[in-house]
């Protein structure tokens, strides 16, 4: 099929987890058969889907945003059911509450977990002994997991192939416009050549690049904030090998298994974000990342974390993953992570989608279920 001339049912812009999952979903809707997925990298799930903490949330992380917490709690068992082969469950996960500067106390945290129905129990003495008791009020054993992004990418490739979705790698969408003959026209740059894909529906799943498309697209109504972040990959000492730890709730840290590399991620609320800016026209987040010097702050992370968790002082830094993290500006105060799902009325059939966590995919799919897609042939 010559996609330059064909009239497609849908074009998905962005080959991360969200873009792939949406393409697969649409391909299984009646009448939506001719679907193309565009990805500017040389493979799927190479950017934000990989460069993150690889955490499958169960709600514990969001005591200041009940909706985000509850949705994670509801979505976790669904994720385990649908992607059991990408989830790492064979490790101990701990949440600890700091004595000072925490925005929740241990009792408040316990009450919050009861409200969302998340399992929690006091950690045994051997696990509590990992922490500095003068700085940690309580330590809890919880149920939370990690995912392997490389296995998730393999799933996406296989399912897209089975669903008949055409995947075009190294293909950068540059704009979305109204097609004078009806539908949409997506401009694509590939191998020095620009072409136009004509389609009934288009989905903008480009994460931090969500407002970088030109043409008739004027950007999202929701205001966004970008951060250049550093996720440190470390080899932890034996005492922490099969453990994930989050210290709550303020300027603290997380250590999580990173199954794709058999290492752990180390992130710190103060040092992981290197700098941030409000989304605005003319500033491409990925250009900001590509020109950034990427000086690691891992020594400062380890030094501060070591005050609360002394064994981390013996961790070995392997490398750091730098990426742009994009969030909804309105959720800065409560740390919530709702999805962005916008239908652009001035471009009928065009949608912008952005999720804050991997389990948010179910919120997106629920939105799609309510959309009255025209199933007639294009």
From TrEMBL:
Transmembrane helix recorded as keyword: yes
Keyword line: Membrane, Oxidoreductase, Transmembrane, Transmembrane helix
Chain ranges of the FAD dependent oxidoreductase domain: 9-353
Key word Membrane present: yes
GO CC entries: cytoplasm
MF terms in GO: oxidoreductase activity
Domain of life: Bacteria
One matching Pfam family: DAO
Chain segments annotated as transmembrane: 6-27
PANTHER family in the record: FAD-DEPENDENT OXIDOREDUCTASE DOMAIN-CONTAINING PROTEIN 1 (PTHR13847:SF287), SARCOSINE DEHYDROGENASE-RELATED (PTHR13847)
Name assigned to this protein: D amino acid oxidase (DAO) family protein
Annotated organism of origin: Bordetella genomosp. 9
């Amino acid at each position: 099929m010559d996609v330059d001339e064909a009239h497609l049912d849908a074009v998905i812009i962005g080959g991360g987890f969200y873009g792939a999952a949406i393409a697969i979903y649409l391909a299984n809707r009646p009448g939506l058969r001719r679907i193309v997925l565009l990805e500017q990298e040389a493979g799927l799930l190479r950017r934000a889907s990989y460069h993150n903490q690889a955490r499958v949330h169960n709600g514990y992380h969001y005591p200041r945003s009940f909706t985000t917490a509850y949705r994670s709690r509801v979505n976790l068992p669904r994720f385990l059911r649908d992607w059991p082969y990408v989830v790492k469950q064979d490790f101990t996960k701990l949440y600890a509450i700091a004595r000072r500067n925490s925005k929740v106390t241990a009792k408040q945290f316990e009450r919050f977990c009861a409200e969302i129905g998340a399992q929690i129990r006091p950690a045994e003495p051997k696990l509590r002994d990992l922490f500095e008791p003068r700085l940690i009020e309580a330590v809890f054993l919880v149920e939370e997991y990690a995912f392997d992004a490389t296995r998730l990418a393999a799933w996406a490739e296989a399912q897209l192939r089975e669903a008949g979705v055409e995947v075009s790698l190294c293909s950068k969408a540059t704009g979305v416009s109204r097609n004078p003959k009806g539908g949409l026209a997506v401009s694509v740059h590939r191998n020095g050549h620009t072409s136009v894909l004509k389609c009934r529906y288009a989905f903008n799943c480009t994460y931090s690049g969500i407002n970088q498309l030109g043409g008739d697209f004027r950007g999202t109504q929701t205001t966004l904030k970008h951060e250049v972040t550093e996720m440190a990959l470390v080899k932890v000492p034996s005492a922490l090998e099969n453990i994930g730890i989050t210290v709550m709730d303020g300027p603290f840290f997380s250590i999580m298994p990173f199954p794709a590399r058999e290492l752990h991620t180390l992130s710190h609320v103060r040092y992981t974000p290197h700098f941030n800016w409000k989304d605005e026209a003319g500033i491409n987040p990925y250009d900001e990342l590509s020109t950034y010097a990427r000086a690691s702050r891992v020594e400062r992370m380890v030094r501060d974390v070591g005050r609360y968790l002394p064994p981390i002082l013996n961790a070995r830094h392997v490398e750091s993953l730098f990426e742009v993290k994009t969030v909804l500006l309105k959720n800065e105060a409560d740390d919530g992570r709702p999805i962005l799902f916008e239908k652009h009325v001035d471009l009928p059939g065009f949608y912008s989608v952005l999720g804050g966590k991997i389990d948010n995919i179910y919120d997106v799919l629920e939105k799609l279920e309510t959309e009255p897609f025209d199933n007639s042939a294009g």
